[in-house]
């Protein structure tokens, strides 16, 4: 979610982190998966941590 908010929408990382937390608790797993596909399934988040959707 952070990648979408920072790279696609251009939000700063700190604000994107806060927003991502809110969004991730408000949408379905299917929506998260579709966003992940939209941003070409990156391996790491903007903080450098491995992304694991499972």
TrEMBL record:
Q: Which Gene3D superfamilies match?
A: Iron dependent repressor, metal binding and dimerisation domain
Boundaries of each Iron dependent repressor metal binding and dimerisation domain copy?
Answer: 4-51
Provide an example Pfam family for this protein. Answer: Fe_dep_repr_C
SUPFAM superfamilies cross-referenced by the UniProt entry: Iron-dependent repressor protein, dimerization domain
**MF terms in GO:** protein dimerization activity; transition metal ion binding
PANTHER family referenced in this protein's UniProt entry, alphabetically: IRON (METAL) DEPENDENT REPRESSOR, DTXR FAMILY (PTHR33238), IRON-DEPENDENT TRANSCRIPTIONAL REGULATOR (PTHR33238:SF7)
**What is the official name of this protein in its record?**
Iron dependent repressor, metal binding and dimerization domain
